[in-house]
Amino acid sequence: MKEKMNLSKKASKTLYIFAISAMLIVLAGCSRALDPAASGKTYPISPGLQAFYNRMGGEEVLGPAISKLIENQTGQCQYTVNTLICLNPMVSGDESFSIYALGTELNLNELSSDPASTEGLIINGFTVYEEFVPIFERFSQSTYAGNPISQVHINYAQQRVEQYFEKVGFYRNFSDPLGTVKLLAYGDAGCTKGCSYKPADEAELSNPSISLEDLDLMEKLGILVDKTAFGKSLDKPHTAADGSLEQVYSGVVLFQDATGVVRLRPLSSILAMPVKEPGEKLYDYSSGVVFYAVNDTLGYHVPILFDTFINAHGGTAISGDPINEVYEYEPGLFRQCFTNYCLDYDPSKHEDRQVSITQLGKQYLAMDQTVLPQPATPEPEPPAISLQVSETLAKVSSSDAQTIHVTALNAADQTPLTGIETEITLFLPKEKTWTSLLAPTAVDGTAVITLPVLKNIHNGSILAYKVCTTNASISQSCATGTYLIWTAP
């Protein structure tokens, strides 16, 4: 019986707490659409490897074959874009097939950074990234994926989340829906002779043409206005204490999480700028202010000059709500803070320069940023399961044994689910029943059970049976079937 995994209800790694805002475990994500950037010579899969190749997902998951059949210490092997699959002709059955440990050969190993961690699925001190657990299970965990050899990483240069295992590597692009997991091009990196195939750029192990130094988060902010008002960049993009990509400007702080969205830090709150509770509306436009309601009828009075600036620079979606009324911070100088930045008013300056964003960026850089608030990671929702059942024999004699085949599929995309535990109930005459647990479903989502030979059942009887899931972490799903007891006269 497969050992149940202990999935954590809380994220334990700062490198991945940002990545799940709504975890959707979509095994369809294992399927990779063929990228037009992928090109080169391909080969037919060797007949001896064809069944294993198909079972592991075929071209959609492993990629096309990019080499001829080769011989090595493992046996007869063939490179695909993402793997090196092998057949040992001296071994029979499923054990004759394997995926070669290219990750180890490519020297992708790193030291475990948190060997004492107890949260999540921990193997050799490495936590399997929660979003990668479903496909890791589909690869029968270490059997075909190998053990993890790195923690999860955020590859900002190639805009993806990735983790290396001994035999395969998993990744998801920032721009992909959560749960859309693909394989890194291990095979391409490992095949140094006889291969002339270029994988999709997004799947390459490294892409030196993309440099983190060249990124400017302000360009990704997504507002079609003059962004120079937010100030000059004070540093290069870097990984912040909460694991997100961050860049500090003189007036604002931008960050990009693993979904690829760039937003503003709540800088006024982080720097503990003065806060005042919202109040009732006392003045209106005729008094030179616009009332910003933030709590039913309560809010803040914002000078028209500040309101004009905010509307010209992305609106309150960028500034956030006010947190205080206007106050005089120095004689003749006035300030009002909003969630994400503060505005200053200096009446002594030229009219087009009287309003400016307060330069708080240096103060932010000087603070202890490990105190940044870190969002909680919600518990991922398990996939809905569709069960299918079938019988080997449509009719069974009193001396024959019936065999029941069970297939567990992801209801959303019909991809096979591994590790699903089920129980069969056979309904016998006189309201009697026979029950038994099945082995967990294999990589292809299937499980099989042979029923005992049934004596003393009337010829012509129709027996019904029901198969239901028993995993405690998923909603129960059932399927039913019938077959005929028939012995020819």
Set down the secondary structure blueprint.
Blueprint: E1 39-40, H1 47-55, H2 58-62, E2 70-72, E3 75-79, E4 84-87, E5 97-99, H3 102-105, E6 122-123, E7 126-127, H4 133-138, E8 153-155, E9 160-164, E10 169-173, E11 182-183, H5 186-190, E12 197-198, E13 238-239, E14 245-248, E15 253-256, E16 262-264, H6 267-270, E17 289-295, E18 298-303, H7 304-312, H8 316-319, E19 327-330, E20 333-337, E21 342-345, E22 355-357, H9 361-366, E23 385-391, E24 395-396, E25 403-410, E26 422-428, E27 432-437, E28 446-450, E29 462-469, E30 478-485
Parallel strand pairs: 24-30
Antiparallel strand pairs: 1-12, 2-3, 3-4, 4-5, 6-7, 8-9, 9-10, 10-11, 13-14, 14-15, 15-16, 17-18, 19-20, 20-21, 21-22, 23-25, 25-28, 26-27, 26-29, 29-30
Word description of this protein:
The protein is mainly beta and 489 residues long. It has three domains: 27-203, no CATH class; 274-358, no CATH class; 385-485, Sandwich (Immunoglobulin-like), CATH 2.60.40. The chain has nine helices and 30 strands. It has a five-stranded mixed sheet, with no helix packed on it. A four-stranded antiparallel sheet has the order 2-3-4-5. The protein has a four-stranded antiparallel sheet with strand order 8-9-10-11, with no helix packed on it. It is elongated, with a radius of gyration of 30 Å. Mean pLDDT is 83; it is low at 1-36 and 374-379.
